[in-house]
Amino acid sequence: MGLGALLAWFLSSSPAGPLLASQVFIGEHAVLPGDRVRVPIWFTNAPGVASAAVTLRFDPGLVEPVSVSAPDASSGFAVASSVRDTTWQIVAARETGLAQSSGILAVVTFRARPGTVARLTAPLTVADYRLHGQHGRPLPGAPGAALAQGQITLVDPQTDRDANGLPDWWEERFFGGPSSAEPTADPDGDGMRNWQEYWAGTDPVDAASALRLLLARVIGGMVYLRIDSVPGKTYQCEQSVDLHDWQPAGAAVRATTSVLQLALPAPPDTQYRTAGDGSGPFPRFAWRSEKAPGAIRPG
User: Fold this and answer.
1) pLDDT of 27-78, one tens digit each?
2) Which residues contact 85 (CB under 8 A, 6 or more apart)?
3) Which listed residue, of 51, 77, 92, 200, carries a Cα 20 to 30 Å from 264's Cα?
4) Contact 71, 103 (CB under 8 A)
5) Contact predicate 37/155, CB 8 Å
6) What is the CATH number of domain 3-154?
7) Which three-class secondary structure state does DSSP give residue 133?
8) Which bin fits 61, alpha (ψ -120 to 50), beta or left (φ > 0)?
9) 163 confidence band (pLDDT: 50, 70, 90)
10) CA-to-CA distance for 263 and 267, rounded, in angstroms?
């Protein structure tokens, strides 16, 4: 059976027959009202899987389906879907069976309805599924696999259920789950830890996205700084003569572009550093610099 014919057959037929010992499951996710959230559909204990049909139940009063996509280009899966009332039928198929026994079949994207109340939970239930090998061959296995239930929790910007200093929505957006990030880790290797990336508004999984000093010069008693920034974030330059007692150098500045430019007085023997805010106080973390003849040297 060709790939196109297999997709059409899955979508036009109703689920029937015994479930396999293999399992299809989803997890727990978090999203701000009005935002989108990506939900992977996982499979396990299914070596050789080449096609799958999954029926997902959701609460249309809280979330609405947006799109379905393959996990990534290397997966080889083609995907299709059909939404009706409270169910979303998803089909994923590829020409040959996968060698691995577990992975992601497809990724569905939901949008939390604007104006919904935070802390409400939208259940997601895998109501039915079928897995097949190459050419539609049923995978071996015993019937009776338990169906999985996950959920999407609508959160407010401060919700932090694991109390690690990183909001649930931020961990979800960048790491795929509301409790999936270690605050002190630096997964992109750019020298900024996750908690620093959160406060700076930068991307914790993109090494090119970080709070960095791009250019600094001392000319005529003034220090001129160019700093990587995130539009909408506020930045405060601080100065110190001993690297212990820090005082604001000029007013806090709200960035409107990706590069912030500052001009500040440069007293003798003064060090500078920059801090960025999330929505609260300025965390002091980004970089330090010491005045040198004609330049500022990052510390």
Assistant:
1) 999 999 999 999 999 988 888 889 889 999 999 999 999 999 999 888 889 9
2) 60
3) 200
4) yes
5) no
6) 2.60.40.680
7) coil
8) alpha
9) very high
10) 13
Q: Can you give the three-state secondary structure of 58-95, one letter per residue?
A: CCCCCEEEEEEECCCHHHCCEEEEEEECCEEEEEEECC
Grouping H, G, I as helix, E, B as strand and the rest as coil, residue 51 is strand
Q: How far apart are CA 39 and CA 2, in angstroms?
A: 28
The CATH class of 213-298 is mainly beta
Report the SS3 class of residue 294: coil
CA distances (Å), origin 92, targets 106, 131, 271: 7, 10, 57
Domain residue spans of the chain: 3-154, 213-298
pTM of the model: 0.73
Amino acid at 36: R
Contact 156, 32 (CB under 8 A): yes
Cα–Cα dist 151/211, whole Å: 34
Q: Identify the sign of the CA torsion 46, 47, 52, 57.
A: positive
Cβ contacts of 246 within 8 Å, gap of 6 or more: 238, 239, 240, 273, 284
> Residue 222: what are its φ and ψ, rounded to 5°?
-120, 145
Assigned token pair, 46: 């299914």
Tokens coding 70:
């393959």
Look-up: residue for tokens 């895998």?
Answer: 126
